[in-house]
Design goal:
Blueprint lengths: L2 H17 L11 E9 L7 H15 L4 E4 L14 E8 L1 H15 L20 E5 L19 E7 L4 H10 L8
Antiparallel strand pairs: 1-3, 1-5, 2-3, 4-5
């Protein structure tokens, strides 16, 4: 079992039940899945760079990425229908916990001039989204051989819709929120 998942089950669940006076373990919020999305943007014409980025994103996530294609043509962006525009991957189970552990304890501390993430980035369903400007903060990516620095969007999807409980859960998992 993953270290972070074990800590969640043994320490954090009882703390959340005590803090919010929950009577049943099933009321406790939990992480359901993590979605990772990355647009390919201006380098979509360079096939070698696209393949390299797909391989790096697969290494980061620990599973194969899915290609996302344009639904409609958009002349302003020089995109035709069915052109490759992004990659996405959804993590669940042990891979999700392993990625979350790597994200919090390895990747976030490697961000330059990092002051924490906004605690207000929860949507109406209680899910939390983070934008990462440089994918090279992950240890799987070799900064010397990468074909360009790309951004990622990571969405942590919770089973519970209570924003306060979800925020408390992320704080207990040592998620780096800003102090302001």
């Amino acid at each position: 079992m993953n270290r972070l998942k074990e800590e969640y089950k043994n320490k954090i669940v009882p703390e959340i039940m005590k803090e919010f006076k929950l009577k049943n373990v099933m009321e406790v919020p939990s992480v359901e899945k993590i979605n990772i999305n990355a647009g390919i943007g201006s380098f979509r014409e360079n096939k070698e760079a696209v393949e390299s980025f797909a391989a790096e994103l697969s290494d980061i996530a620990g599973q194969r990425v899915h290609e996302r294609k344009a639904k409609k043509s958009e002349a302003g962006f020089k995109i035709k229908q069915n052109d490759l525009v992004a990659f996405s991957v959804t993590l669940r189970g042990e891979r999700m916990w392993a990625f979350l552990d790597k994200l919090i304890n390895i990747a976030f501390p490697r961000i330059r001039d990092f002051r924490g993430f906004s605690p207000d980035s929860f949507d109406e369903n209680g899910n939390y989204s983070v934008g990462i400007r440089e994918h090279v903060i992950f240890p799987e990516v070799n900064q010397n051989t990468t074909k360009g620095i790309r951004g990622l969007q990571v969405t942590i999807v919770f089973k519970g819709k209570n924003v306060e409980q979800n925020k408390f859960l992320l704080k207990k998992l040592n998620f780096p929120f800003s102090q302001s």
